[in-house]
Design brief:
Layout lengths: L5 E5 L5 H13 L4 E5 L6 H9 L8 E6 L5 H6 L6 E5 L8 H7 L1
Parallel strand pairs: 1-2, 1-3, 3-4
Length: 104
């Protein structure tokens, strides 16, 4: 099994066009990563279970992308001691300002 240094977690697969830019940079620098779609609201138990196992797998950083309430980064941070980077996603109503404020 390959060691994963970074996980990228998206609240929805529709976030991929933006999140893929982070994946490109990680590839460019030969950083091992995996991508997962999980939701703080639709799959909270699965999100918690996945997140609680990150440290044991040797993961060093989590990147969480979510829009609207953007709870994903906070939920992940609540279940692990590794650093979590939140990426606020654009939304139709407030152009992502709601996501930014929720993430921060």
């Amino acid at each position: 099994m390959k060691n994963i240094d970074v996980v990228i977690v998206m609240g929805s697969d529709s976030d991929w066009p933006i999140v893929s830019e982070a994946a490109k940079i990680l590839k460019e620098f030969h950083v091992a990563f995996e991508v997962k779609v999980l939701s703080a609201h639709r799959t909270p138990e699965e999100t918690a279970r996945y997140t609680k196992g990150l440290e044991a797998r040797g993961v060093k950083v989590a990147i969480a992308a979510a829009g609207g309430a953007a709870a994903l980064a906070g939920v992940i941070a609540g279940h692990t001691a590794i650093p979590v980077i939140g990426i606020p996603m654009p939304t139709a109503d407030l152009n992502g300002m709601d996501s930014l404020l929720s993430t921060v």
